Here is the input.
Amino acid sequence: MIAVMTLTADGKNRRTRPRLHRAWLVAAVALVALVGGAGFRATPGVLITPLQDEFGWSSGTISLAVSINLLLYGVTAPFAAALMDRLGMRRVVSFALLLVALGSGLTVFMTASWQLVLCWGVLVGLGTGSMALAFVATVTDRWFVRHRGLVTGVLTAGGAAGQLVFLPVLAALAGNQGWRTASLVVAAAALAVAPFVWGLLRDRPEEIGLTALGADPATPRPAPPRGGAAARAVKVLGRAARTRPFWLLAGGFAICGASTNGLVGTHFIPAAHDHGMAEPTAAGLLALVGVFDIVGTIASGWLSDRVDSRILLGAYYALRGISLLILPSLFAATAEPSMLIFIIFYGLDWVATVPPTVALCRRIYGPDGSVVFGWVFASHQVGAAIAATAAGLTRDHLGNYDAAWYGAGFLCLVAAMMSVRLAGRASLDGERVRTA
Here is the structure.
């Protein structure tokens, strides 16, 4: 809030009603872009079965396109974060939306699997990667000092929940109107969001004579980095890769991606279909994950401002691992109340790992924290890409997804141990940097 002073008729200054800080409007615009981007990324999950029915492509073939999408979604993030420092958030995000519209719109003309790889794998992957969680870190770093963890949680929850909440709509469109209609709706939505972002998003508070929310006006803000964005992204990676915390964070986040976007986000619907559940019903259950994710991730953001982030990460990964280990038995039982318990439990933990991970990158690596988080997030998507393809191949060769669920569950327990081991210090450019 910004207090406004007015001069009264008697010549005295009086404080009037405080004005909402512009940071909240920027966060709201970012939320719209992230929710839209989430909807764009939700489509492949509902296209697997329709594409199999129309073209006869195997789960492994379609999963390859999804894997490339997930991989580029992550690898693009650190370069996009550096490019936002160079060109500004508004330009980068607006162009990303146009890429998504192009990739989604062109899928209606495809006749071969390589075209699916090009459109949904490459174009949509690059576009959504430029609106990834590194965008969240950039927004909160520039515009917030107070409530930074909470805003990170809200934006993260909006993006992740949006992806899952869109699933029933897209599944209904694909089932009733055909998968091409779902793709065209995604393209139209991307085009609709782009002017909104261009008109209202602002890159830095200093551009309009403000400071970040909660920042001391006397504290100088870091100057925008000079030089090429790609060169800076690679340079930051080289420095961070020499520190132990980077590998622990990146390894844990790779497992995070494998157990969420790559496995559950991509294969939960076809796995439920294998057990006799209708696709709209399965999509509705997965959408509930998004609903409970809002609560879990916002709470995680609030907690990351108050609790050691290493403890939070360890708890989140352990609880997720347990939930995945019991999922095969729930599918076998086909009891909706039991599955609902999993959905609630798993949903609260869906992307709760993001706020503490962002907080750790910021505390360890300072001004380079958003770019470092971009690389950590890239590992998240590498894990997701591997899991998406591996789970599809598992289904093709074993006839079910059970091995994929068990494997992801055990990996989450490993990630919990890695998070706890973040205790200690790291050396970066000759300085001793605390991990928390």
Remarks:
- The beta strands are 5-7, 13-15, 425-428, 431-434.
- The chain has one domain: 19-205+226-434.
- Residues 22-55 form the longest helix (34 residues).
